[in-house]
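Same chain as my last thread, 76 residues:
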Amino acid sequence: MSQLTIYLDDESIRKIETAAALEKSSVSKWVKNRLIQSLENQWPTNYFSLFGSLAENDLPAVSKLDFSQDAPRESL
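reply #2:
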């Protein structure tokens, strides 16, 4: 197994040590698990199955918008 050296500030180290202790894990294992999670595919299963499920005419056209309730724009 390879090793990796990283440099962190003391506050970050304390937070990592606390988080690892709460999970009853070693710091090395905690960091490894977090790195693996961050590198995994984050899209939910079947996320892209919705692509193309609506036809162009399935959504109603928006009529003219009423901007009377909008706040005035600040001048620059």
